[in-house]
Amino acid sequence: MKTRYLTAAETAKLVRAALKADFPGVVFKVRSSTYANGAAVDVWWTDGPTDHAVRASVDRYQGADFDGMIDLKIDRPDSLVEVNGVRQVVSFGADYVMTHRSYSEAAKLNAALQFERRRGVEYDPDHNYTPDGGTADWGQHILWRDYLAPVDLR
Fold first, then answer.
1. So what's the pLDDT on residue 33?
2. Which residues pair with 100 in a beta bridge?
3. CB within 8 A of 136, min separation 6: which ones?
4. What is the pLDDT of residue 153?
């Protein structure tokens, strides 16, 4: 079977379709970009599924991996996927699919309220919290990790 080389835009269409199937009702913004010696697809959304769940859905559309130990991009082998209803061997047009999750003000407020109920103290965004209630250089990380990460929808 002959390999079909997809553009970054064609790869972005496959990413959109996968997200729609895996997370119905969630609004995603998907954009492709090309740059010297490569291309990428970026995915943005607010609240909803975790970054881990979205990455699990779209990782298969990356055309490369990066090995930071040797500072090297490694092309992935061609993949057998369905494109426009036809199973084809393809080479994806984007080296990487990058995910970007943001939080609404309502989600941040809800997380702060949960924090206050569980910890019994008023949440202060300028205070550095640790899991055991002490202080450290964690900033707001504890709020995001413990109170803004919903159960995966997948």
1. 95
2. 44
3. 128, 129, 130
4. 37
CB neighbour burial string for 110-131, b if at least 16 within 10 angstroms, e if fewer: ebbeebeeeeeeebeeeeebee
Pairing of strands 72-75, 79-83: unpaired
Residue that wins the pLDDT comparison between 28 and 4 = 28
Angstrom distance (rounded) from CA 66 to CA 138: 28
Element (H, E) at 52: helix 51-58
| Domain locations in the chain as residue ranges | 3-102, 105-147
In angstroms, the CA 13 to CA 11 distance is 5
* pLDDT reported for residue 154: 37
Angle at 6 between CA 35 and CA 29, to 5 degrees: 65
CATH 3.40.50 for domain 3-102, yes or no, is no
d(CA 13, CA 18) in angstroms, rounded, equals 9
Average confidence score pLDDT of the chain? 83
pLDDT per residue as tens digits for the range 103-121: 888 887 887 788 788 778 7
